[in-house]
Amino acid sequence: MLRTNRRDWMRGAATAALLGAAPRAVAAGASILPSKAEPLPLTAVRLRPSIYATAVETNRRYLYRLSADRLLHNFRVYAGLEAKAPIYGGWESDTIAGHTLGHYMSALVLTWQQTGDPEMRRRADYIVTELAEAQDKRGNGYVGALGRKRPDGKVVDGEEIFPEIMAGKIKSGGFDLNGSWSPLYTVHKLFAGLLDIHGGWGNAQALDVAVKLGGYFARVFAALDDARLQEVLGCEYGGLNESFAELYQRTNDRQWLALAERIYDRKVLDPLVAGEDKLANFHANTQVPKLIGLARIHEITGKAEPAKGASFFWERVTGHHSYVIGGNADREYFSAPDTIARHITDQTCEHCNTYNMMKLTRHLYGWKPDGRLFDYYERAHLNHVMAAQHPENGGFTYMTPLMSGAARSFSSTADDAFWCCVGSGMEAHAKHGESIFWQGGETLFVNLYIPSEARWEKRGALVTLDTAYPMEGSSVVTFAHLARPGRFPLALRVPGWANGQVDVAINGQPVTPVMERGYAVVDRRWKAGDKVEIRLPLDLRLETTPGDDTVVAVVRGPMVMAADLSPSETPWDAPDPAMVGANPLASFTAADAAKPRYAVGDAFRPMGLTFVPFYSQYDRRSAVYFKRFTESGWKAEEANYLAEQAAARDVAARSVDVMYLGEMQPERDHGLTSDISYPVSYLGKQGRDARSGGYFEFTMAVRPGPLILQATYWGEERARDFDILVDNVKIATQHLENDKPGKFFNVDYPLAEALTKGKKNVRIRVVPHDRSTAGPIFGMRLFTAKKATTA
Predict the structure, then answer these.
(1) Rounded to the nearest 10 degrees, how much is the dihedral formed by the CA atoms of 604, 608, 610, 614?
(2) What does pTM read for this prediction?
(3) Residue 580 exposure: Cα atoms within 13 Å on the Cβ side
(4) Mind listing the pLDDT tens digit for each residue in 645-680?
(5) Residue 759 near residue 707 (C-beta atoms within 8 A)
(6) If we measure between CA atoms, which residue out of 675, 643, 681, 646 comes closest to residue 661?
(7) Residue 789 scores a pLDDT above 60
(8) DSSP codes of every residue in 363-425
(9) When comparing pLDDT for 160 and 642, which is higher?
(10) Which residues of 256-281 are buried (b: 16+ CB within 10 A; e: fewer)?
(11) 371 and 496 in contact (C-beta within 8 Å)?
């Protein structure tokens, strides 16, 4: 590999001169690259055969299977129109109904842009006409499908919460606002879909519906003073600020920009603008769209503070809160900075978070092209996004687990689920060509090495990109057609992990490019037929986790490698593999370099392993992170390490059901109901409490035989007392008061067999004593009691 230095530059310049294409002279300290950039339109890019093209086609088939009329069910019914098809299940049958239609609208536009499929455009236009009819029927500008659960349990049209909010009657328990689940999040998805359809091909009706909907919410927000508005914004609102900023951009009506700037969650955003990382214990994906909105406001207004907040957030999340695959958050929440090693669980990396972080990356990149930004983008795109869609059945994951032995769950279907990650999934896999090629000034950037071809209108060019990357290190860019030949810079991204090692050749002749901001830049006179090859090293390396260099992952180029443990359907009950020795990579042997696949010997204990690309482990169990030991350290720790692993797995193996309190999806799955009860988070753990006069209650599965209910508490609570009931039978009164300072601890409550006999599930109810608090409880688990042993 060539290392760029002055001698190489002179040699390369001489070679290029012999070819009649001498690089342009650049003054010391001058920049070749432009100050801003924009992606080539998605309509100008077509994918060639690869895993990415397969993902787009798999996703297109999924979009075909969905029914617009079923997604429109509530929109019509709540407007007083007859439904044309039954409602879908999952989240679409809950009070968050309608968010999926917004994602679907965006996905249709993106798929049309990526593939040219006219059916995608036809469906999108049809949805707009249906929404316009429902909006006209209501007559007040509102259109929506979200529901509202009244105190008596009846679910009605969610619009009725907004007059209450305007009157100052605001009640929110975190994700709930006046009985509706994250309603403004759902409204944002609808805005985004309408604006995407308008931007996609100029559908004027889509913009008209968005403007009328905007007018409705302008009246809602106008009724709120700043304090009341902050109460409302304490409930997830997606990127509603971005929608109103974009509405201003489309209409030039300044009321929308003023509203976009007013939709500002001070608790979260003020510290970020001030350069303070206070993200710990915040729900991650609730925050990312807010920063995308700030980025868009900066682009429109030029104001510096929104850009500061967005940039600081990106730096902190990617550098201090992200896992090796590019995802972030454990059980949907940020932990303290640089604590990833303590949060390698089966609930890591919600897909929506990464999808939105990649959107934020594109905004920042447009402000000043820097290859470092796309180092993150590529990492997340390959290792997380491509892991989150099953390439055969099109199912999506919600979480992408990184705990050793955990299996991915592709449990979404075309008839059920419809969680947020289904929506972001159908968008993510519609547009794999959107960030390959960028342009700025006279420069053409190549940011992702994905087989593709693109029309570059500025030069009347057809540009092709042929590669087997990341399986192989070589990529070839060809100017297959160039109507306007001439001199311009071609910038090829050189990832930071390459450490400056790169080979570049033009028409088979080696040249030495200028290196700037993570790019190998060749500035010359180009003509049709010119070929540029870039070759990057794909050596194995170890990456430590932020804050703990004893926990490592194995990476090859941009690709995270994983130990292949077993098929998903095979239970994994072995100890977590550990890495031992001073030079563990020396024991890796390429079993199939084209895959790639490596066999590893005694560098891992207690068993040898085979490593493969993590993203490809769709139906397999993986190990990604490894605790690292020296030989002497392993001998000292082995017994304790294996005993701890065995104890944890013993409880897991005997578990019947686990309830992650304070977390949105588990609480929905377990039918949690509550009053005067709130989700809490502390030291990276999520939980729930109930205040005096309130309660929380949920369902857990049981099985025959003696069972133990286990609750997790923080050991430094102030004095409090509460009762725990199973099917309305009190099993314990718990007193908490500084029990285990500085630690979380578990309390076991044995259940009498009569409580569960003949049942498939029970209701667990937690009730505080008068003027006391119940919990917080940081999770509950039901597991079978160990059988007594006989002498």
Answers:
(1) -40
(2) 0.85
(3) 20
(4) 777 777 777 889 999 999 888 898 999 999 889 888
(5) no
(6) 681
(7) no
(8) HHHHHS--HHHHHHHHHHHHHTGGGSB-TTT--B-SB---STT--------SSS---HHHHHH
(9) 160
(10) bbebbbebbbeebbebbbeeebbbbb
(11) yes
CA-based R_g, the chain, Å: 28
What gap in Å lies between CA 719 and CA 349, rounded to an integer?
36
CATH code for residues 6-30+436-535: 2.60.420
Question: Distance (Å, rounded) from C-alpha 404 to C-alpha 528?
Answer: 51
- For residue 13, the model assigns a pLDDT of 38
509-551 pLDDT, tens digit per residue, is 999 999 999 999 999 999 999 999 999 999 999 999 999 999 9
- Give all strands of the β-sheet with 509-511 in edge-to-edge order: 45-47, 452-456, 461-467, 474-482, 531-535, 503-506, 509-511
pLDDT by residue (tens digit) across 736-757?
Answer: 998 887 688 999 999 999 999 9
- Give the pLDDT score at 680: 83
Structure token digits, residue 705 = 């035989």
Tell me the C-alpha to C-alpha distance, in Å, between residue 688 and each of 137, 664, 694: 41, 11, 12
**Amino acid identity at 622:** S
In whole angstroms, give the CA distance from residue 490 to residue 504: 12
| φ/ψ of residue 366, rounded to 5 | -60, -30
Alpha-carbon distance of 271 to 147, in angstroms, equals 33
Choose which CATH entry (3.30.870.10, 3.90.420.10, 3.90.1150.30, 2.60.120.260) describes domain 656-784.
2.60.120.260
Token pair 């100890």 is found at 575
Whether residue 307 contacts residue 294, with contact meaning beta carbons closer than 8 Å, is answered with yes
The pair of structure tokens assigned to 676 is 């005067």
Mean pLDDT along residues 167-179: 87
701-721 burial by CB neighbour count: b if 16+ within 10 A, else e?
ebeeeebbbbbbbbeebeebb
pLDDT band for position 496 (50/70/90)? very high
Tell me the C-alpha distance between 343 and 340, whole Å.
Answer: 5
Average pLDDT, the chain: 92
Taking the domains of the chain in order of start, what are their residue ranges? 6-30+436-535, 55-263, 540-637, 656-784
Q: Which two tokens stand for residue 585?
A: 């990579």
